[in-house]
Design goal:
The chain is built from eight helices and no strands. The chain is an all-alpha fold and 237 residues long. The protein has two domains: 100 residues; 116 residues. The radius of gyration is 28 Å and the shape is rod-shaped.
C-alpha cells in the first residue's frame, strides 16, 4: 500500500517530491484520466506557488545576511573613530571628536532599527560624512575613510537586494507563506492522490498499478530521508 508523505518533511523536500510526481504524471500515459487530471490540476498549481514562496523566503534570508554586513560596517566606523579619541596627538583626537559627533547623531543603535529606518539613517550619516569640515577631519584618521567606503558599499548592496525583492513582490502580488502552501500540497498528495491510487491499484491494477508504484517510490524516498534526519536530530536518552 502506498504510504502517505510525511507532513514533517521540509518545505523544500515536499516541493521537490511534488515536482517529481508532476513529472511522473506527464510520463504516465494517464493524462486523459479525469480523476487524475482533477488532482494534478490543483497539485501543479500549488507546487508552482510553493516554489515561488520558497524563492521569496530565500530572498528574505539573503536580505538579512546583507543587513548583517552593513551592521558590521556601521560598527567598524564607530569603533575605529572611538579609538582615535585616545590617540596621543591632540590634532588627531580633535579630528576624531568632529567625526564622532556626526556618528553619534545616529549611533550604534541604528543597527537595531527596521530595514527602512536603518537605511534612511545610514544614508543621512553618509551625507553628513561628506561635509567639507568632516571630510578634512576624516583625512587625519587613517582607515576611517576606508570603513566609510565599506559602509557605503554595504548600504548600496543592501538597497539593491531589497529593491529587487520588493519588485518581485509587487509583480507577484500577495501570496500565502511557504508553510501554508506546503500544508496544501501535502493535503493534495495524501488526501487525494494517495487515496485515489490506493483504490485504483486495488481495483484496476492494469490501469493504475505502474503509476501507483512510481508515486509510492517517490514518497518512500522522501520519507526515508525525513526519517533519517529526524532520527539524527532526536536527542539521546
Amino acid at each position: 500500500m502506498i504510504e502517505k508523505i510525511i507532513a514533517k518533511s521540509r518545505t523544500t523536500e515536499i516541493h521537490g517530491s511534488s515536482r517529481t510526481m508532476n513529472t511522473a504524471f506527464q510520463q504516465s500515459g494517464l493524462l486523459a484520466d479525469p480523476f487524475l487530471m482533477g488532482i494534478y490540476a490543483r497539485l501543479e498549481v500549488e507546487t508552482d506557488e510553493l516554489g515561488k514562496a520558497i524563492d521569496r523566503s530565500q530572498a528574505e534570508s539573503i536580505a538579512a545576511e546583507k543587513d548583517d554586513v552593513r551592521d558590521d560596517a556601521v560598527r567598524a566606523v564607530g569603533y575605529l573613530v572611538q579609538g582615535y579619541l585616545y590617540y596621543p596627538k591632540q590634532t588627531v583626537r580633535d579630528a576624531a571628536g568632529i567625526v564622532k559627533k556626526v556618528f553619534d547623531k545616529y549611533g550604534f543603535s541604528v543597527t537595531e532599527e527596521s530595514y527602512v529606518i536603518e537605511s534612511s539613517h545610514i544614508v543621512s550619516m553618509l551625507g553628513d560624512f561628506a561635509d567639507p569640515e568632516v571630510v578634512a577631519a576624516i583625512a587625519l584618521l587613517k582607515g576611517v575613510d576606508e570603513n566609510i567606503e565599506s559602509l557605503q558599499a554595504a548600504e548600496d548592496d543592501f538597497e539593491t537586494t531589497r529593491a529587487k525583492f520588493a519588485k518581485d513582490e509587487a509583480e507577484q502580488g500577495t501570496f500565502a507563506s511557504a508553510t501554508v502552501l506546503k500544508k496544501e500540497v501535502v493535503s493534495i498528495i495524501n488526501d487525494d492522490l494517495v487515496q485515489f491510487l490506493r483504490t485504483g491499484e486495488r481495483f484496476q491494477p492494469d490501469t493504475y498499478g505502474a503509476f501507483a508504484r512510481t508515486i509510492a517510490e517517490i514518497i518512500n524516498k522522501n520519507n526515508e530521508q525525513v526519517k533519517k534526519r529526524l532520527k539524527k536530530d532526536k536527542p539521546e536518552d
